[in-house]
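User: Some background: our group keeps a shared notebook of sequences we're curious about, and every so often someone picks one and asks for a predicted structure to add to the entry. Today it's my turn. The entry only has the sequence so far, pasted here. Could you supply the structure so I can complete it?
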Amino acid sequence: MKPITKLASSTLPDGSVLDLWERDGFHFLLRDGVQTASSFSHGSNEAAAAMAAVPVKRANQPSFLLDGLGLGFTLFALMDQIRREKARFIVAEPCKPLIDWHKELMNQERPGFLHDPRVSVEFTAALQIARKNPKSFHAILSHSTHERMNLSVAEASDYFAALKQGGLLVITVARPDTRLSRTLQKAGFEVSTEAVPASHKGKKTAFHTVILGKKGRFVPFSAHQS
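Assistant: Of course. Here's the predicted structure to add to the notebook entry:
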């Protein structure tokens, strides 16, 4: 077995420790020893990005808010789906060292992607950005497959307010979460779920759950909507 090497480590504002590891060309993020992201398995990231992108591919200025960067695979998939020059991808990433790791230690994954003028990184929580930008986003994406996502009705309502009419809140979790679905419904979302392969390769026998929260009646965005 090839050795695993710790490349970097950083203490987050909440006191938890984020580590970047590498083995045989694959990268892994661990938070307090629990794996949160892997370049070996990212099928659910790509599935969630596709769900968020499909309704707005014809929008002239599609705008997305991502709750965390992780290893970047949700952002990569969105950028592949949405090619418009006026698209905006706002990444809420409180851990500044993670951005440095991408530039210095993982640039081979997607060389120079953080220099794409459509991408901006804000070193704060996604909720803070959502609260300051009502009716601004076509989709908001969050990936929480390593721990249960604890979202209050008030917080879900803040995300609801930040979305454009017909916008989507796309949350990827490890397994079906009826409590989270009910929370979104109480905040005004129309909720549906879909099981997607956790991995992008192999036999795809493990699945994650994508919870889709729609703001209002679903209407595909046209090129005349911003």
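Suggested note for the entry: The CA atoms of residues 20 and 206 lie 24 Å apart. The two ends are 51 Å apart (CA to CA).
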